[in-house]
Design brief:
Length: 490
């Protein structure tokens, strides 16, 4: 064949060169992606779609509320006075020797390197130092002094006892009844109830004063973990959750009109992220759950959290100040079915609860019980005890100022100096004891000689004793130690 006949295979000025096999791009074989080994077993062959899965919300940010933080600060300043008052009221004659009281440092929250006498002298209107007439020494020492209540503190304790015994006895018994109904076995340990009893307005001797007066409701049982308060079989249906009155608002405001879209009530000054707000709206769209009825078997995690929030709301609604410590609620996690990460759940629901970090221990408030200015919408009758105790603290501060100035009539007292003085107590506190330790260690016994046995609360060393003796001699020199009476004989 002629060469001209093959001319169609070439292009003018662009000859076709043979292809190099090394330049060809060959498709690489798909390498199998190694799958992680897992021991999870799925019952269904297909996984749920990604749209049906709940999107995780970012960790919520704790937004401070100054109005509620002030309540937590007030309770923190009264902590030492309340605990010492509880110890003295647990004794028949309402006094304790100072050498015995030093073994209760952990319960009182006094560190080892601090003497106890200055803490007692901080409240001269509530506590007093005395020595018994039968052992009247030439120079009172640490082994002869005792701490007792003043007449004003005696009157306060008697008035609160009369109020609990007459008018408020049915209401206090109803609180215990509702607490026991929220447990699956209708039983709670007495040592656990002691943590929550002061917040509910109950006295520490409720085991001997309140419960025996209602044999149709309560009975005591001995368990492997200690004494337990058990509910008598009651065929009545479970009660409804505690209602709280809505805040009083004017009807002419535009924001108070009925809304046509889902609304999330938040306190003033609180803004949430879009994902967090959407999560709370979906949470409140779930069916209502009663805290007195157990969940059905196989309930979802959202329904379990729904019931846990209802239980915490019920407990806070029964407290006197509509607040309690987060540590107190953690004692009831297994009894009430609360999650292990209880504080995270409380922070995750700012529309219902507020966690205050004021003080040594964190407090939780029921938001719907307060207005925007931090005032209680409905005040409990037992709040008179807190108000009178605060008045005695202020009276003691005026007495201390008068002693420094040498004048008994001192005006212009303010709470600013009180905060400065009491912050020394809050910042120096170490491990804080619990009210439940009173029953476990025998501090709440009938005889003060039984006090002791608390781990880490033994008497201090020689240096601590010398420091305590110094403050005792200083108190005697300043005339702050009474001579006692015939009722104070040891």
């Amino acid at each position: 064949m002629a060469a001209s006949s093959l001319s169609f295979l070439t292009v003018a000025h662009h000859p076709i060169f043979p292809l190099n096999p090394g330049r060809l791009r060959r498709p690489h074989p798909a390498t199998p992606t190694p799958k992680p080994l897992s021991a999870a077993i799925r019952c269904s062959a297909t996984a749920p779609p990604a749209a049906a899965r709940a999107r995780p919300i970012p960790p919520p940010k704790l937004v401070r509320c100054p109005a509620l933080d002030r309540h937590a600060s007030r309770a923190s300043r009264l902590r030492f006075a309340r605990k010492l008052l509880t110890l003295l009221l647990s004794k028949p004659r309402r006094f304790l020797p100072l050498r015995v009281l030093r073994r209760c440092r952990r319960f009182l929250g006094v560190p080892r390197d601090r003497p106890l006498v200055p803490f007692v002298l901080r409240y001269p209107a509530i506590f007093r130092l005395f020595h018994a007439p039968v052992s009247f020494p030439l120079s009172p020492s640490l082994s002869t002094l005792a701490v007792a209540l003043t007449p004003a503190a005696h009157a306060l304790a008697d008035d609160l006892a009369a109020l609990r015994g007459s008018e408020l006895a049915p209401g206090l018994a109803a609180k215990f009844h509702r607490l026991l109904l929220m447990t699956p076995r209708h039983s709670l340990l007495v040592s656990k109830l002691a943590h929550l009893a002061p917040d509910l307005g109950l006295a520490m001797d409720f085991r001997a004063t309140l419960c025996p007066n209602h044999p149709d409701l309560f009975t005591f049982a001995h368990t492997s973990h200690g004494h337990a308060l058990r509910l008598v079989d009651d065929p009545t249906p479970p009660p409804s959750p505690s209602p709280l009155p809505p805040p009083v608002r004017s009807a002419d405001r535009l924001i108070d009109r009925p809304r046509r879209f889902p609304h999330l009530p938040l306190r003033r000054g609180l803004n949430l992220r879009r994902a967090h707000r959407d999560y709370l709206l979906r949470f409140h769209s779930l069916p209502e759950v009663s805290p007195f009825e157990p969940l059905e078997e196989g309930a979802s995690a959202e329904m379990a959290e729904r019931r846990a929030c209802a239980v915490v709301r019920e407990v806070l609604a029964m407290t006197v100040e509509k607040r309690t410590l987060v540590d107190h609620l953690t004692h009831f996690r297994r009894d009430f079915g609360l999650p292990n990460r209880l504080r995270a759940m409380l922070v995750r629901h700012p529309e219902m609860f507020y966690v205050s970090i004021k003080g040594v221990r964190h407090s939780v408030f029921l938001v719907e019980a307060f207005d925007d200015d931090g005032r209680l919408l409905v005040e409990d009758e037992m709040l008179v005890g807190r108000d009178r105790l605060e008045e005695l603290v202020r009276e003691g501060k005026r007495i201390r100022r008068a002693r420094k100035k040498g004048d008994l009539a001192v005006d212009g007292d303010s709470d600013e100096d009180e905060v400065e003085d009491d912050n020394v107590v809050d910042d120096s506190l170490g491990a804080d004891g619990e009210f439940g330790d009173l029953f476990e260690a025998g501090v709440a016994g009938d005889d003060w000689n039984e006090v002791g046995g608390i781990e880490g609360d033994n008497e201090g060393d020689a240096e601590s004793d010398a420091m305590e003796e110094f403050w005792v001699k200083k108190a005697v020199a300043e005339g702050l130690v009474d001579s006692g009476s015939e009722h104070d004989v040891w």
